[in-house]
Design goal:
The protein is α+β, with helices and mostly antiparallel strands. It is 17% helix and 39% strand.
Length: 300
């Protein structure tokens, strides 16, 4: 549980190192993104899957499975190490004067086959501050991670920046048995900086998140991608944004949205329900169609 909680916290720094996006990419129904994540130790020499007995790479796929409400589903797996993670999120945004908030509903589940354990987790809310000047991102709210097999649970609290001072990106976590007894471990610090882990034995560990290695994404060339894969679907918008031509970016974005509305009208007229490519609804959650998620054979 301690390792899972620390990795959960660290993931926010690695995922949000870029500058806030001023021109949003509104996910299209059926849009998907696939990639392979290389462990840092493999970077020196890219190895094709056919050249190794069993790859230690991680396969990742994400798909926009619903438009109303907007739901994205994700699945990643590393068969060699017996790891898999499935999640779905439903983002609900609202404007708060000079800020915008995004409540992230949904949940994820990390499966660690070696220990026969499942870690079920939720997500904090996100806030984009100073929209009209210098936008910056922070997280706030309480997250829970539970593991039925180990009978431990964790509570992670993301603290919003106070009105005065520069005390931002702080996080506090406690791990305790699900019976509700005293915490056996506490983690505190900044999700984009230094985290201190204190065990009930008195032992402490310090981790600098900024020194952690990251995994490189590898994807198929755009020319080989499906028309609904993200990089191909949004390529004209991306080029316009890189060139600083926001008017042209808006025009390309509008064309995509118009095409999606027409496609939706045709489905309604034909009585054809929408069916995602990689996921299927299972109660309130979305589960992967594992047979349809074959590894990419030639990542580049």
């Amino acid at each position: 549980m301690v390792s899972v909680v620390r990795q959960y916290i660290c993931s926010f720094h690695k995922a949000f190192q870029h500058q806030p996006v001023r021109k949003p990419y509104n996910a299209q129904l059926g849009e998907f993104f696939r990639c392979e994540l290389e462990p840092p130790s493999r970077r020196a020499s890219v190895v094709r899957r056919s050249e190794v007995e069993e790859s230690d790479a991680i396969d990742f796929v994400a798909e926009q499975v619903s438009h109303h409400p907007p739901v994205s589903a994700f699945h990643m797996s590393c068969p060699k190490h017996g790891l898999s993670l499935t999640a779905d999120i439903n983002c609900k945004s609202k404007f708060l004067g000079m800020s915008a908030s995004v409540d992230i509903a949904g949940q994820g589940c990390l499966t660690v086959a070696a220990h026969n354990e499942d870690y079920v987790f939720t997500f904090p809310s996100a806030y984009c501050r100073s929209l009209l000047t210098n936008p910056w991102l922070e997280f706030s709210g309480r997250v829970r991670i539970t593991c039925p097999q180990s009978a431990y649970q964790a509570t992670i609290t993301f603290l919003a920046k106070p009105s005065y001072g520069d005390d931002y990106n702080k996080v506090v976590a406690e791990i305790r048995p699900q019976t509700g007894s005293a915490a056996v471990c506490k983690i505190s610090g900044r999700w984009d900086g230094v985290l201190t882990t204190t065990h009930d034995t008195g032992e402490t560990e310090v981790m600098d998140v900024t020194h952690l290695a990251t995994s490189k994404k590898t994807v198929q060339p755009i020319k080989d991608q499906s028309k609904m894969e993200s990089r191909r679907l949004w390529r004209r918008v991306s080029v316009a944004l890189r060139d600083g031509d926001y008017k042209l970016a808006s025009s390309h974005k509008q064309a995509l949205e118009d095409a999606q509305r027409v496609a939706a009208q045709r489905r309604v007229a034909a009585g054809t329900p929408w069916s995602p490519k990689y996921f299927v609804k299972d109660g309130d959650r979305w589960k992967p169609r594992l047979g349809s998620i074959a590894p990419q054979s030639t990542p580049v």
